[in-house]
Design brief:
D-amino Acid Aminotransferase, Chain A, domain 1; 5 domains; Rossmann fold; 8-stranded antiparallel sheet; about 30% strand; about 25% helix; 36 strands; Dna Ligase, domain 1; 5-stranded parallel sheet; alpha+beta
């Protein structure tokens, strides 16, 4: 076994790899951008090397800098994590050519599975069922539109080099095909440098089923059973679980062995995941599950597999990279209980899931379950990288117990002032349809606004008032204080709405916690974070309904879809902002008229910049 490992990544996955490496007695080297100089993964490592400015293209995507850092520190091996260069065959080969150990599959395996069109052809030859679609070389809009007509709507446009939900568009109607194609290609070009796409038949009632594979250099390939990743938003996984609910032993055997054949077809080594799409209109059936793609790396959701199998996949990766055999044979692997994972993002569902950045002044994810994170209280959530700040995982004897445990983790976490999707996740995980396993990839879209927290109810106002009077003197944000003040009423403001709460009338408060600094009360309840200004200090915050369209973060305006004087409807897209490698539509807050337009296509804007203004219709 090697003695020093460089992790070519950041955030929670870098911390995750380091934890196992340290337990195995392996020294670790972190690489970091200038924006990550004080990041948790840097603090955890034995050594750290700065590899460039904040932009990924100038730091985490610069393979030559990473290899130089390994040479400089004497690291013998490089673990790529996921994302960034983890599936870059040229980088893997460069690591090997530099005399270093690559913790991952062979470059030729990465190349074989790297492009979705070539991978599907390879899988078909290996006897793995694939989804119907078009994978041709003719990429003209006319040919693609013609093929989409032949496949039949709805169709899915997918970038061949895509991943993580980027470069994917579902098209319901031919009249929207051209716009969706252009948007998909633009996003794919920006994210992957490759705008080639394939088309696939959109499967009705689709379930996203994936199988964890592991291979070694001795020709062994085993599976560690399946995961269900059907809960997705914009093709980005939100909640994952293992094993897949409703999967019988016969279907499990069929899909898992198809994944093994896929791995064997490319002489796979290390951890990998074979992703399938299932038509679940009549439940999970072996003859209605098709290959989609293979991810030649560790997956974000790998902890749920670890929880049900008792395997440390990172340890297996390191041992395989050192030339050891897979530690367990197929018949030695089994499923124990059920595990579920939720991805906690720094984003605000109330504003269309726009990313939220800034300093984590208060960050408490509790002590239950398993938490994977790359940040601590006091750290900064940067606008330069993916907004996922933690993964919450719970293992139980049954699926019901796992869901209940995850719900408790989500309900009790406290994050401020960065916004999170915790309440959204909680509502999804406790939805009757999810609990009863009535799910597919359209689950979130179908449940729509029921998953988005609304305006605070009377109980929220009452609880905030109780917290506000717990101590008459302003103090730092430090939690709920119990020494009650003699006041009988409190004036509060939330998003422009003001109320005076008579504490003598308060009969009920939420099971909640809160923070109070004398000017505001921050309430944590059921995954929600609500801010109430204390009106006595005159700090009412920004008024709701003023019609100002503000840039929620730094980014580039990629399209402007209205002009000054246009009449718009509530929810209508006004312009699109590209930030954190994703496109975010900014919409009208109500019916009205665009009275000001300060943004233009191609413009770079800073956070809080005024982009447009809408005045309410009379």
């Amino acid at each position: 076994m090697f003695e020093k490992l460089l992790i070519a990544n950041r955030g929670e996955i870098a911390c995750r790899v380091m934890r196992t490496a340290h337990a195995m007695g392996i020294s670790t080297v972190a690489v970091y951008s200038e924006a990550d100089a004080k990041a948790l993964h840097v603090r955890m490592a034995h050594e750290a090397v700065c590899i460039g400015p904040a932009a990924s293209a100038e730091s985490y995507l610069r393979g030559e800098k990473i290899i130089a850092a390994a040479k400089e520190t004497g690291a013998e091996a490089i673990h790529p994590g996921y994302g960034f260069l983890s599936e870059n065959a040229d980088f893997a080969q460069a690591v090997i050519d530099a005399g270093l150990i690559w913790v991952g599959p062979k470059p030729q395996s990465i190349r074989a599975m790297g492009l979705k069109d070539a991978a599907k052809k390879l899988m078909a030859d290996a006897g793995v069922p694939v989804t119907p679609g078009y994978m041709g070389d003719d990429q003209s809009a006319e040919r693609l539109a013609k093929e989409a007509d032949a496949i039949g709507y709805p169709v899915l446009i997918k970038a061949v080099a895509g991943g993580g939900g980027k470069g994917m568009r579902k098209v319901e109607d031919p009249k929207h095909f051209e716009d969706a194609l252009e948007s998909c290609q633009r996003e794919a070009k920006a994210s992957f440098g490759n705008d080639v796409v394939i088309l696939e038949k959109w499967i009705e009632s689709p379930r996203h089923i994936e199988v964890q594979l592991f291979g070694d250099s001795h020709g062994n390939v085993v599976h560690l059973f399946e995961r269900d990743c059907s809960l997705q938003r914009r093709h980005q996984k939100v909640i994952e679980e293992a094993p897949a609910p409703g999967m019988d032993s016969e279907t499990r055997e069929a899909v898992c062995m198809a994944a093994v054949r896929a791995g064997q077809a490319v002489n796979y080594e290390g951890a990998g995941t074979v992703e399938f799409i299932a038509d679940a209109s009549e439940g999970l059936r072996a003859d209605r599950i098709w290959f989609m793609e293979m991810n030649t790396r560790l997956q974000v959701e790998h902890p749920v597999t670890e929880e049900i199998t008792g395997v440390d996949l990172v340890e297996w990766q390191l041992r395989a990279a050192a030339g050891e055999k897979v530690p367990l044979a197929q018949d030695e692997l089994s499923i124990s209980g059920h595990a579920i994972e939720a991805r906690l993002y720094a984003e605000d569902p109330a504003t269309g899931f726009l990313p939220s950045t800034g300093r984590l002044e208060h960050f408490d994810l509790g002590e239950d379950g398993r938490v994977e994170t790359g940040v601590e209280e006091g750290d900064e959530v940067s606008p330069h990288y993916d907004p996922m700040i933690a993964k919450l995982i719970y293992h139980g004897d049954t699926r019901e117990a796992a869901i209940e445990g995850l719900a408790g983790m989500l309900a009790n976490l406290e994050v401020w002032p960065v916004r999170t999707n915790a309440a959204f996740l909680l509502r999804a995980a406790t939805s009757p349809d999810f609990v009863d396993a009535r799910l597919d990839t359209s689950f979130i879209a179908d449940h729509g606004d029921t998953l988005i927290p609304g305006e605070p109810g009377d109980e929220h106002w009452n609880t905030a008032a109780m917290i506000a009077v717990a101590d008459p003197e302003p103090q730092p944000l430090a939690g709920f204080r119990m020494n009650s003040a003699p006041r009988t009423s409190v004036a509060l403001t939330h998003k422009g709405e003001s109320r005076t709460i008579d504490l003598g009338d308060v009969q009920h408060t939420l099971p909640a916690s809160g923070l109070d600094d004398g000017e505001r009360v921050v309430l944590f309840a059921a995954g929600e974070t609500l801010e109430f200004a204390l009106a006595k200090r005159g700090s009412a915050g920004a008024a709701a309904g003023d019609g100002a369209i503000i840039a929620p973060m730094p980014g580039k305006v990629t399209s402007v879809e209205v002009a000054e004087g246009d009449t718009v409807e509530k929810g209508q897209r006004l312009l699109t902002l590209e930030a954190m490698k994703m496109e975010h539509g900014l919409t009208a807050p109500f019916d009205g008229v665009v009275t000001q337009l300060s943004a233009s296509e191609g413009q770079q804007v800073q956070v809080d910049a005024l982009l447009a203004k809408v005045e309410k219709s009379e």
